[in-house]
Records
---
Amino acid sequence: MQKQSFLHGAAVLALATAIVKVIGALYKIPLVNVLGSTGYNYFTMGYNIYSVLLTISTAGLPVAMSRMVSEAATLGNERQIKVIYKAALAVFMTIGVLGSAMMLLFAQQLANFMNSPNSVYAIRALSPAVLFVCIMSSFRGFYQGQSNMTPTSVSQVLEALCKLVIGLGAAYYLTNLGKSPEVAAGGAIIGVTVGTIVGALYLFRLFLKTTSAMGRTGTELSLGVTMKQLLSIAVPISIGAAGLQIINTIDSKIIMGRLIYSVGLTQLEADSYSGIYGSAQTLFNLPAAFIVPITISVIPNVTEQLTLKNRRAALKLEQSAYRITTLLALPCGIGLAVLSEPIQRMLYSRYSDGELEVAGALLAILGVAVIFNCLVLLTNAILQAHGHAMVPVVTMISGGLVKLGINYLLVGNPEINIVGAPIGTLICYAFITTMNLIAMKYLFRQKVGLGRIVLKPILATAAMAVVAFMVNDVLSTMISPSIACVAAIGLAACTYVVFVLLLRIITYDDCLLLPKGKKIARILKIRPENR
């Protein structure tokens, strides 16, 4: 088993995430242009239902499995690792079968519940994916618990490639045949299902090789006791994550209902607005995807240090995670906010000027929300690694309820309508972040060095934002808006990197956690601090 350090594992996952997101952009951006805002809404609504079941199956159990496998691996207990996997697989398979059956048999009822009856084709096409994602999650938890992130990374890339080739190909094919947007959306989402099947088959083959080479050291607990331990960790995490996802699904229903029944839009107009919001959410979710590798890697590594009673090493890992998260979240979020409309214009050629204006307003608010979303992911992971799994449950569900109330009030206001949705999202994640930080300070006296973790990255981000705005503003009057936007992003990124190095935000210890860290530190001229 190839074990990786915290940032090494995070770097492997981040590289895979970068590849996956590039593939995802090649999939979803043309998809909006193929399906239009209305067809993309059907795609999004189907995916929202799938996400609830996906979260139930993949939020708590892989984390619990990762923690338990990490503890067993730290103690050299290989026999217990196999028992943990068997217990997790039994639970995963049960959830997967029930979830797939629910989406297949009650597709029309679920579509009607979402106030989007034409989403039925997308929901049915996604139904088998729940089962295969559950199977994949059992393998991923097995490897992540042993700090080996490569299998997860490869399976993610395979998933994305299938989604791109099969999903986008099916959408083009069905659209060219003259099929309706709802049928084309169902075809587009078949790629997601095929991707989960291919990813599961790859991990299964790798798993057979890995387990055949494992020894039988240590002692094992019974399957029943192991399953009880697994569920005691997984259930609270799943309740919190699934609770928020269920709230988000209800939120989508509320948004559609308020647009139709309070604002007075037709079903087609509401579908169009919801589709525009869905495309903005695609960009909103992009930066957070690069934080997930950090959270996946931080849990087993912090758990290992806590198992060894080395709280200082655990704290050092958490500080590095904070730094990397902040360095990624701030420029991504503010960059999306500053260049919201130019980015939408560059990506979605099918949008009219009126649609672009709405899309720009939505993304500007969601850009700020990106920062808090990323911090929520990290603080949740740290709380879970310390054994406080119930805290994120309370904070996430509380934040989701706040979001429901705000969206109900704002989206139903004709003066605000769809713009109220991202405002609710921003307030929701800001609320959860604040509650998590308060809980961490109270539970284990978490100390955050504001100089490096917050203040310095803010200075670098501010300089980047000024460059992005000015370059785009000047060049867009001289050359193509799309080229101006790309140039603004490129120069802003260079500005940010320069300021990060000048302000010495990255530490020597951060570099050592990376492969060939000493060489990286020497190239960047980062020296050890005086202790």
---
Amino acid sequence: MKTNLTYSQYNNTNNGNLLPHKHRAKIQKQKEQVRENKEQLRPARAISFGGSASLNKGVKKAFNKTVEFVYENEAAYNAIYSWIVAGMLKPLFVLNMPGSEEKDKQIVATKNFLQAFIGGFLGLTIGGGFIKKAIDVVKTNLKLFKINDKNEIDVFKEDTTKVLEIAKDIVKDEHNSIKDKFKNASKQAQQEQGLKKVSKYLSTLFKDTDYEPTIDEVSAKAKELISNFIKNHQGAFEGEKSIEFLKQMKADAGNKSTYEDAFEVLWKNSTGAITAIGKAKISSLLLPSIMAFLFAKKNAQKEAQEKAKENILRNNSSFKAQQEQFQKMMNKNKNLGLSFKGNLLTSAIDGSARLIENMGMSNIGISLAKALSHAKKPSARMADIESFGITGYWFQNTARSKKIDPSQKLGLNVHSVLVTIVSSTAAFIIDWALDGIIDKSKGKYKERLEEIAKSVSSMKHGESLDKILANVSEKIKMGIKDEVTRVLDGKKTEELAKITQEDIDNIIKNLSATETFKGFDLKPELIKKVADSLEQSEPIRKQIKQACADMIGSEDIAKKLARSIGDSKALETTIESLTKTYGKKLSKFKSLTIFTLVVRFLVPVLMVPFSGKLKKKIIEWTNKKQTATAKTA
């Protein structure tokens, strides 16, 4: 019989077999360890933003959480990332780059430091906090109505499934907020002493929480949402042109349409463009004073401080006049048809959302959203607008400034223009070149979803809850399902334990105590049927959730996949929708990461020596021209 083994391989194999069992097992273990080490050293076979096989679970989970955070909080990500890259790293690199005069490098480094930290602060507080909350209100309002055949807005009833689910998610988010996490951590830590107290506080703070609201809380929030929408927001969407635009925004079932995505990106990032001039202006006001301090020019510093005081006094008087005008407008809010409830912050957020809706549904707003929808990467293009706006301001302000030396003006402007053009172009090219990675990752992601769906499709399904609860309202359905699910999830067993009569009695007692179930006849046999159905179908959702644990938005994936299991057409649509959303999340993360890295750090640092040389060439050319003019004169 022919063998493919070489002589040495054959010898080693047989020698291994002749060894005593104990030694043979030891050698085999050593071989396996060597093989395992080689596998660990081997490069990943495919680059995937979803995480390669060599990455451990913790790294993949951290990466996916970061991507999810960036997708929902891009203004905050830009601010934090810019602080690190542009505010700290870039000034250090600029100061140590050869090829430019020391003063030029100090001015560029100081300007970038100021701009990054002032811009980051404004972006984090206004764009990443206040405006994001206002945009979340707008996004919610867009879900509270449909366009009927008469091109009219039909507002959903407060007790419809869609509104109740939206309300439930809002209540959960409110209770799972950072503020509540700190509060719960402090409460839990009070029961401990010493180091255990610190340990308990940190473990509670970083523990994933999932607050389950009662049906009364959900019902109250749903009523509040619809009431507030009709009073304060419905009118913003009712124009003829707005209706047509809204129909296009709502065209893709289960997906964000191109227009809806562009609308959200436009207004979520508008603060960057709006505050661009403001943060540049603040930086330019502070720059001469700081530079004077760095160069020890006491007289210039004193003059700058006096001018700054004059500007502050002038601005304060202007601010007071604007404040009085704003107060007068707010005193007339009843005439404007506004009806805000809650604290001052909630009212301000709701008012900002109303302003965004009115501006967004105006002719200009619709035109801007449609124009942005043509961009493949709208978030990156909004960042471009901000970058060019800041550069334009700095160029104009530097040219007019009487405090900056003429030779330094040239260096600053040459560097600013060169950096903006080269960095924006480089970021666009690099971002475009890496699009293939996103496409590959989407393919792998889709395959994984299909595998999960296939693995659970043969599992036993319980009787449909819609069939069991056919003659009850949506609020009653949700209340019963949530309470039974809470009891079943509380059973700490590998398999869901059968519900007991005591459990059924407790469920009826708890539900009967709520406002929603007053007057409703809760029968034990109805609760038993619901429990039997969930006992059979709930494991499907749990298995999907477990399988999706390392995937972006696992909770959302589990929910949507579980609903579609058993319906091949709905399942196909759901998988396509989830894959498309996944691609958008990765693409946004990639684009914003590359843009900040290239535009705010890499190119500005590398351009320092080039801009210095270009500045010298321009000065030489200017001097020659002036000399030639003087000779002819």
---
Amino acid sequence: MSENPKSKVPFTVFPTDLFEQREALASNPLLNRMKEVRKNQTDPHRPHYHYVNPEGVLNDPNGLCYWKDQWHLFYQGYPPDDERQHWGHAISRDLMHWEDLPYCIYPYPEDRCYSGSTFVEDDRVIAMYHGTRCGNMIAVSSDPLLLNWEKVGGDEPVIPIPADGENVAYNVFDPCIWRSNGKYYALSAGQRADGPGGQNVATDYLFESDNLKDWTYLHPFLEGDRYSRVGDDGACPYFWPLGDKHILCFFSHSSGGQYLLGDYDEERQKFTVTYGEKFNFGPPGPGGVHAPSATPLGDGSVIVIFNMNPGKKTVGWDQIMSLPRRLTLAESGNDVHMEPVGDVESMRGELTELKPFNLQANTDVALRDLEDVADEALRGNVYELQVELQPSRASMVELKVLQSPNQEEFTRISVYRERGYPDRATFTRQRRTTFVTLDNAYASLDPGVHCRAPETLNVYIEPEEPIQLRVFVDRSIVEVFVNNRKAAALRVYPSRDDSIEISMRSQGSSTQVSELKFWPLGSIY
């Protein structure tokens, strides 16, 4: 157990009535401090519509959930007056506009409040998380804004870290929690040395409880996982139903955010894996997708959000949140589709829409040079762009954003139609997947910016189906969604003020652009 003192961050016990809570928040000194800090943020790379905590740095998102008509996002925050991790807190009605709230779970008896999940019941929300030097902790809240939390077990963890020399078959680390057959179940992240050649592979250890306080270890939860990499671990797990399957979202400190899809046997309490894939396509850093936080939407889908690692040292802040994604089970039952979720439409400024046009072969085309484009349209660094490409014989179609006039800087999205793997359903060369890459190798001239190998999406597109790119640019992040099936995201840091142009290129043969829509987007605060 930790012997560290209690937090130095100001702490408030709030009323339990919503109106009284709002009154107390209006005069809360900690929240007012956060508001003042947010007013004075001037870093040109700080995003407008991706959530960034109001003060200090952050790490994993935690416990995303829906409670009393509000979405609640928690995260590992580092307050300036005590830089040990506390659970930060923000709420939203539409998964786009976020309102900051005070820190809600403070470290004690644990040294730091690490990652965990939430489980929503009719009358309360249960948070289960890892407390460093202590074990896995549980706190509960039932007030309207989830401002007050009480720790189950008081000054003791519900699943303690084993004592030195104690021989146990499990790890105690990042947990998640759910309910099945009248009992609570929790996963604890870890590894097992039963991979090829005795090497470590990801696993999660399953515990069972009747009352949240007393937990019994059962067994490793996964069966048949051939999708995660040797050396992965199962950190930040989130286990939820997805259609008629279940999904386990997690983070590997080796290879990043990913998921496993499969079948949940509630009698044996085992999860048999049938498919798996990455949320990032390379290591998590620099500038890549980090840990997930996920919650069921109630219609068979799951909402997931990630923190994005930095690719450059910044003063006073570093990581940001991705856009929330809605995950759905593909019709085949063997894949997961993803699309942006949240009220993006409410953020949009004036629409610029181009008539269909032919993209000539082997020529860079600046969109602002096309006919009928206003001087200030189709450029910027805070916007949403939708492009639809008709099937063509082009060997590659390229979209460059955040581009300087002479292409000293740019971030590149490249489409390689039917240049991927044989389709998994048929394994014939006649049906191949499409590769879409997101490349930040030329995104910045700043020597302090670290780029990475391109993120490469592997998505099946029907032979006569248009390719639809939905691109979100927000100062230091680019996210691209392909036909609402797959998505990639990277951090970017253009160093030039004029890196605001957009251009396209069709290599080898021309391509018909059947739709192009552009909206500047506003701030979420």
